[in-house]
From TrEMBL:
Pfam families: ABC_tran (PF00005), OB_MalK (PF17912). This is ABC sugar (Glycerol) transporter, ATPase subunit. GO terms for cellular component: ATP-binding cassette (ABC) transporter complex, substrate-binding subunit-containing. InterPro entries: AAA+_ATPase (IPR003593), ABC_transporter-like_ATP-bd (IPR003439), ABC_transpr_FbpC (IPR015853), ABC_transpr_MalK/UgpC-like (IPR047641), Mo/tungstate-bd_C_term_dom (IPR008995), NA-bd_OB-fold (IPR012340), OB_MalK-like (IPR040582), P-loop_NTPase (IPR027417). CDD domains: ABC_Carb_Solutes_like. Residues 4-241 form the ABC transporter domain. Belongs to the ABC transporter superfamily. Its EC number is 3.6.3.-. It comes from the Bacteria. PROSITE patterns: ABC_TRANSPORTER_2. Keywords: ATP-binding, Cell membrane, Hydrolase, Membrane, Nucleotide-binding, Plasmid, Transport. PANTHER family: ABC TRANSPORTER ATP-BINDING PROTEIN, MALTODEXTRIN IMPORT ATP-BINDING PROTEIN MSMX.
Length: 361
């Protein structure tokens, strides 16, 4: 296991990059704590796999350094980094049995036969393949082969880190949930540093202790699921996390008030320096009101089980509202925002409220 440090890291696939836009990964400095469980989350093309492959040694970065436990491994081959990596599509030895596939990394390192058998049996149980250990991999389906690949990546206990590149893509939905649960259990038992790449927020939020959100080649926020949800550091995080994502409105902010384009004033739960930017509010924190508030034009109401989702617009801008099942909706509905749940953004980045000393000044 190892702490992984990225120093001034950046990467371009072009030989002579000349601008920020030429970089698949913009410059970053990050520390991945020893024994942490991280998810790299973002939309396709944001740089997740590039970053993972730099950590694993499959790609050498254009700039910066990669350190494992304080040791510079930027120029070290993948084998020297003592990691396990599981790829999006299954990588198995078709002529071998399931047992031999799982045992391969351990036999390569000369492990004791008794230990190999016990460890392979443990991993086979975890991935639900105890009954298939004697079968050749050639005759198995894609989901079974991916489980073998996943198991082989986890069979070693002595690795610095285990890296997962969208490993559950070809796994059926029910097995995805079971394997995520098993990965969490494995992490609790052995404390490996784990980095899990995905574009699925459910996978990320249920697997990781901390989620790393990437957007346009940058890490825009690293935090717990609660931090990402309640205080998105970037408008992309607010939009990407949550279903549906955060509602945004242009606003002029000053003190504890935000003024919308039509002149409507919204109360804020904190005090801010004058800002021309946006306010962001989660659908759960928008409430229907009989008095005051903003007029809501409803386009449709979706019943999603324990609550209903109202999709409409306010001041010509889209607005999503989550209301409890059974709550009445007026013929001419109005909405109000919970002041202490409003986030403020300028140039897409979250703005912190002023402290007492700043207000006094």
């Amino acid at each position: 296991m190892a702490e992984i440090t990225l120093k001034n890291l950046a990467h371009s696939y072009l030989a002579n990059p000349t601008s920020d836009a030429d970089y698949a990964l913009k410059e970053m400095d990050h520390i991945w704590q020893d024994g942490g469980a991280y998810a790299l989350l973002g939309s396709s093309g944001c740089g997740k796999t590039t970053l993972l492959n730099i950590i694993s040694g499959l790609i050498r970065p254009s700039h910066g350094r990669v350190l494992f436990g304080g040791r510079d491994v930027t120029d070290a081959a993948t084998a020297e980094r003592n990691i396990a990596q599981v790829f999006q599509f299954p990588v198995v030895y078709d002529t071998m049995t399931v047992r031999d596939n799982l045992a391969f990394p351990l036999r390569n390192r000369g492990m004791d036969a008794g230990y190999i058998k016990a460890r392979v049996d443990q991993i086979a149980q975890m991935i639900g393949m105890e009954a298939m250990l004697s079968k050749k991999a050639r005759g198995l389906g894609a989901d079974a082969k991916q489980k073998i690949s996943l198991g082989r990546g986890m069979v070693r206990e002595d690795v610095n880190a285990i890296l997962f590149d969208e490993p559950l893509t070809v796994i059926d939905p029910h097995m995805k949930w079971e394997l995520r649960t098993q990965l969490k259990q494995l992490h609790r038992e052995f404390g490996h540093t784990m980095i899990y790449v995905t574009h699925d927020q459910t996978e990320a939020l249920t697997f990781a202790d901390k989620v790393v959100i990437m957007y346009d080649g940058r890490v825009v926020q690293m935090g717990t699921p609660e931090e990402l949800y309640e205080a998105p550091a970037h408008t992309f995080v607010g939009y990407f996390i949550g279903s549906p994502g955060m509602n945004f409105f242009d606003a002029e902010v000053s003190g504890n008030r935000a003024t919308l384009p039509d002149g409507t004033m919204i109360a804020l739960g904190a005090d801010y320096a004058p800002i021309s930017g946006q306010i962001g509010i989660r659908p759960e924190y928008v409430g229907l009101t009989d008095e005051g508030g903003l007029p809501l034009t409803i386009h449709r109401i979706e019943d999603v089980g324990r609550h209903r989702l109202i999709r409409g617009e306010v001041l010509g801008k889209p607005l999503n509202v989550v209301v409890p099942e059974g709550q009445a909706v007026a013929a001419l509905p109005r909405v109000a925002f919970a002041p202490d749940k409003i986030n403020i953004y300028a140039n897409e980045w979250r703005v912190a409220p002023r402290g007492p000393a700043e207000r006094a000044a």
